[in-house]
Write a structure and sequence with these properties.
By secondary structure, this protein is of the alpha/beta class. Helices cover 20% and strands 26% of the residues. The chain folds into 3 domains: 4-147, OB fold (Dihydrolipoamide Acetyltransferase, E2P) (Beta Barrel); 169-309, P-loop containing nucleotide triphosphate hydrolases (Rossmann fold); 323-387, Ribonucleotide Reductase Protein R1, domain 1 (Orthogonal Bundle), CATH 1.10.40. The chain has 10 helices and 16 strands. Bound molecules: guanosine-5'-triphosphate, magnesium ion and zinc ion.
């Protein structure tokens, strides 16, 4: 008989908040029969962030078996592993989760009720990218018994609750488009802050380069190249840059994130000809996307690694970053901060500010500085409307 003992485990912050029933039925990507797709669009106008680890805020006592993992990053239950198969979650919508077993077989799984009961936020029980142990009940169905601890996650804030979109990623492809919708450096900068905070790599993919003269993109690529960020210019339509993008994705765990209509799904279709993901026209008059992808879905790449395609976001609100913290995520400010007269300089209005002096002398990009300024100021105000 195995030894049972009580252990203290950390619970993720979202567990403190009560789950609102209304929200459960209205998850992103879960369009009900009577819903029009637009009923869900507003939910996408929420913030998104990346974090290396879940944020922990309180403890609870549960029963586990000696030796099982109770490191707090995930709840690991005592189960009979001999009956279980390991798999990767490809998608999870409503009560159905698609899991791919190591041998490539796909299983439509439900989640053991106790796992759901233990999680306050039903959307976070299993997410694409999760590594799970499940018990097959027949050749194509099973029951998920355990979710292994997560590494990097991409999550978004929704009414101050964390909604995990993808787990176990090591890089974020920040997808933007050179045109239709137009490029928004401020949106890139918001993503970069979020990615830096989560300690995963951020790659800027500028898609639809066929729509503009590539000389127009040089300044922008230069700015991000200089701060050490990889920039790849691509076109899902013409195939430009796809080889380089494939090399970046090879054997890595990536999530594509960005506004609706920038071509995240189109890029995946172009990278892997075997994929047929639905894509959508951008609106003629607003040049905005129509939120075609409703659900985060993991796609395995034939050359190794996987990419999760996500629904477009409208706003990128950094709800968990405080203004004083922001400076650290603008890496190019660092050499100049020491010339600020005041140790707590906000670099906004102070005299004798090293950062502002560097912007004046073009040692720091004014585009980046403007992003910083807006991020700091917007922090105490309503989400800034400039990004959309
Ligand atoms: N000109 C041009 N159009 C592109 C390119 N890539 C995608 N598009 C078009 O952009 C539109 C939106 O593409 P999607 O792939 O659906 O965009 P998405 O980012 O997945 O959008 P959501 O799923 O709504 O978040 C489609 O009409 C595509 O044909 C490109 O490289 N060049
Ligand atoms: Mg899409
Ligand atoms: Zn300063």
């Amino acid at each position: 008989m195995r030894d049972k003992r009580k252990v203290r485990v950390d619970f993720r912050k979202n567990r403190e908040k009560t789950t609102r029933l209304g929200n459960l039925a209205r998850q992103v990507g879960q369009v009900g029969e009577n819903d029009s797709p637009n009923d869900h669009v507003d939910e996408l106008a929420i913030s998104e962030r990346v974090s290396g680890k879940g944020r922990l805020s309180r403890r609870r006592t549960i029963i586990t078996t000696e030796g099982s993992n109770a490191d707090g990053s995930n709840l690991v239950r005592d189960i009979d592993v001999t009956k279980c198969v390991t798999g990767r979650v490809l998608s999870s919508a409503g009560l159905t989760t698609i899991v791919r077993a190591a041998d490539g077989r796909r299983f439509e799984c439900t989640v053991r009720r106790v796992l759901r009961t233990m999680s306050r936020d039903q959307r976070n029980v299993v997410v694409p990218g999760d590594e799970v142990l499940f018990q097959p009940t027949n050749i194509a169905e099973g029951v998920i018994e355990r979710v292994n601890p997560r590494r990097g996650v991409l999550s978004r804030g929704s009414q101050n609750r964390e909604h995990i979109i993808v787990a176990n990623i090591d890089q974020v492809g920040i997808v933007v488009s050179a045109g239709e919708p137009g490029l928004k450096p401020h949106l890139i900068d918001r993503f970069l802050v979020s990615v830096a905070k989560g300690s995963v790599a951020g790659i800027i993919c500028i898609n639809k380069v066929d729509l503009v003269d590539s000389a127009e993109l040089q300044t922008l690529s230069g700015i991000y190249g200089q701060i050490g960020c990889e920039v790849v210019l691509v076109s899902a339509h013409t195939g430009v840059g796809l080889e380089r993008l494939r090399a970046i994705l090879r054997n890595r765990q990536t999530v594509f994130a960005g506004q609706s209509g920038v071509g995240k799904s189109s890029l995946l279709n172009a990278i892997d000809k075997g994929l047929v993901i639905r894509t959508g026209e951008v609106s003629d008059w607003s040049k905005k996307g129509k939120h075609t992808t409703r659900n985060a879905v993991l796609h395995e790449l034939p050359f190794g690694g996987w990419v999760v395609d996500t629904p477009g976001i409208r706003q990128m609100e950094l709800w968990d970053v405080i203004p004083a913290e922001l400076e650290a995520y603008f890496v190019e400010f660092r050499p100049f901060v020491r010339y600020c007269k005041f140790p707590d300089c906000s670099h906004l209005h102070e005299s004798a500010c090293g950062v502002q002096a560097a912007v004046m002398r073009s040692l720091i990009s004014s585009i980046r500085y403007e992003s910083y300024r807006r991020l700091v100021l917007a922090d105490n105000a309503e989400p800034h409307p400039y990004d959309d």
